[in-house]
Amino acid sequence: MPRTLRPGQRSELYTVDVRSGEHQLVFTSNEILFEAPNWTPGGDLIVNGDGKLFRVDNGLIEIELGGVPDINNDHVVSPDGTTVYVSADDGHLYAVPLTGGPGRRVSNDRGPGFHHYLHGISPDGTTLAYIGLEQVGVRRVTNVWTVPSDGGADVQVTNDEYADDGSEYSPDGQWIYFNSERMAYVAGHAQLFRIAVGSGEIEQLTFDERVNWFPHPAPDGSSIAYVSFPPGTEGHPADIEDVRLRLLTDEGIRELTTLFGGQGTMNVPSWSPDSTSFAYVAYPLDVS
């Protein structure tokens, strides 16, 4: 069921210029809880909300999803700008023309206990990176998987019982970035990693006390934007006060802002095509 705003809460869509650090409020709503902004190659912003997908243009303009079930906040745009791929509440992945039209299921049927959560697409547009969630008895097991964007056989990239999420390709297609609890010393302590496509070599990227999620490499490879939760956070919950947006660069970690948010703030690839800005959503709550 789609998330809704709490009484006194609103959704605020921002962009931030990573050179100047300037934040620009693009759109706000007191009616719809929209999430997970990303850009088309042409520079348009897209968000989801109420189980639907919208283009942002002085308001929310619905993109017709052609019979696809209600979607969640996992969606990516093809590099050529013709197609948007979405995760639906039935657990499957679908391809839809970005201009709207009939949806086409991309994912395979791996049984009723398996759900696909989409996070990335390869630079050539041929392969989707997703998180496969499988219910094994009382345990929820998540791993990184890929599937051809035109449909075909899945490839399991990780095969373990660590909590993995947020799988996204590097700009050169040689790595898949993700967050994982594989080095956690307490439950929920996710850090950022990347795994080499083909060899399976894994490299840890962050090593701090905060809980780090959803690594988004800039298109030019200059930095990685990600969401950082307070120590002790489990999962990526909504409505957390001390959520920080950070950049990981060759020089280290750079803080960009602190906000009230979490789930939905920056779940999907959110960089502008020219790598100068990325988009995010805050969910301020008026408690007066």
Task: Write a structural description.
The protein is mainly beta. The chain has a single domain, classed as TolB, C-terminal domain (Neuraminidase, 6 Propeller). Helices cover 0% and strands 50% of the residues. The chain has no helices and 23 strands. The strands form 6 sheets. Strands 3-4-5-6 form a 4-stranded antiparallel sheet, with no helix packed on it. β4 and β5 form a beta hairpin. The protein is globular and about 45 Å long. The model has no long low-confidence stretch (mean pLDDT 96). Belongs to the TolB family. This is Biopolymer transporter Tol. Pfam families: PD40.
Task: Calculate Rg over CA atoms.
Answer: 17 Å
Strand order of the main beta sheet, please? 3-4-5-6
Beta-strand level of the residues, as a percent range? over 45%
Based on helices, strands and strand pairing, what is the structural class?
Answer: mainly beta
CATH architecture: 6 Propeller
InterPro entries: 6-blade_b-propeller_TolB-like (IPR011042), WD40 (IPR011659)
Protein name: Biopolymer transporter Tol
Family: Belongs to the TolB family.
Pfam families: PD40
